[in-house]
Specification:
heterodimer; A: alpha+beta; Folate-binding fold; four-stranded antiparallel beta sheet; 6 strands; B: 421 residues; alpha/beta; eight-stranded mixed beta sheet; 18 strands; globular
Amino acid sequence: MIRINCPFCGERDHSEFSYGGDASIEYPALDAPPEQWHDAVFMRENIRGMQSETWHHASGCRMWLVVERDTLTHEIQAVRPAHPAIAQALEDEA
Amino acid sequence: MARYSAWTVFKNGLTGQKGWGRAWRDPEPKKAYDVVIVGAGLHGLATAYYLAKNHGLKNIAVVEKGWLGGGNAGRNTTIVRSNYMMPGNRQFYEHALKLWEELSHELNYNVMFSQRAHISLFHSPGARDAAARRYNSMRLTDTPAELWSLEQLKKEVPHLNYHSARFPIIGAAVQKRAGTARHDAVAWGYARAADQLGVDIIQNCEVTSVSRDGSQVSAIETSRGTIQAKKLGFAVAGNTSRLWQMAGLGRLPIESHKLQAFVSEPLKPLLDQVVVFGVGGAHFYISQSDKGGMVFGGDLDWYKSYAQRGNLPIVQDTAEAATSILPCLGRVRLLRHWSGIMDMSMDGSPFICKTPLDNLYLNAGWNYGGFKASPASGWYFADLIANDRPHEVIQNMDVKRFERGVMIDERGAGPDPKLHG
């Protein structure tokens, strides 16, 4: 079991979460050329090692999180809220 | 090396089994080959075999970072079927099944292919309609397929849960020519047959970098030295992205996920067919090995991973699915479970294609379905490498298909790799 330290709920089993995917993808503007949308939707770096990924705390606070996790060892280095303003607010509070 | 036959089995039985030599050589890598295949799994070995057998090529090597059959060749549930519907897949997997039917003779090696029937249960009228569409499309393309009523299913497989299942079974779609094979025997059979045709199989030889000369690959650096290659093929599903990036080619429409499988303690004969259960979020497939172990599997672990080990929530999910359709397994003990790394592609279908480099070829993206595909995968990949053009059956199995708006999406799950189970 992977344990994810949710910034809102504390450390929880990963079975409470649902995996989103690669958090490094930046979606282009709606009217961007199809090639850019193709790359964002279909192409992946598929990192073997530390990667940024999204997880949804579906059976908890229902917040989307960005997790820095090693895809080979499953070690987690950092967890933060996916919404930049909420992440900033938490940081300011700390 | 000696040909295997009933006579050699008999003779060695009388002479203390002392007459068996090794099944393939253990050569030192040469400096250069005409074709180098990376990955001595089922796909790589089959490719080397068909390159030598069908296309008469002589100077071929297969390099493998670990030992032969230690990757996904030894980490599957050994199911062989051809109940695919999409154009391209339909012909491809049927060709694979036809190759399976002759494989033991072809390789002079008993791969223990057992056409015991593949039974897909359905649990709702909607699922029955979908199965009817798929299995009718098989019949229209010359692949026998059947839809069984509940009565017929009860007669053939009497011990499924017909009385208290949360999703009552209402019938099944059946492919009788489908079944299982012995996974190690397939790897060893292809290795031995390829070796006899002069292919060098080089184990413990990990590729560490790929050298390029403009738009050509010139050589690979390995843990056993530099090997030059006139043509290079990748057949390393699970780690495709790593090699692709060593060749300086950037991103691929692939994510690596892990899939677990399980085997129970050996039992007396219990299940004569492959049985598949899929409804809502559940996914489960089971058969019984010749040793008696119940071999079964379920879903991915749902998060991207390169770790060849599984996680407990899926063990629980799979055990729940097992006892929900075969309650008689409730007290059976699990013997082993293992995990392999899948190339999960964006539409659930594979890639056998040319690449941006002139002499580099790609075989990847096998999702859950690599075992059954391996003979045809090797056949078409060898055809591609030898002739430098894709056969019409695999014309859409390229990494550029998404640019053309072509999705070969059997499940209709969309561009989310983890959903293509």
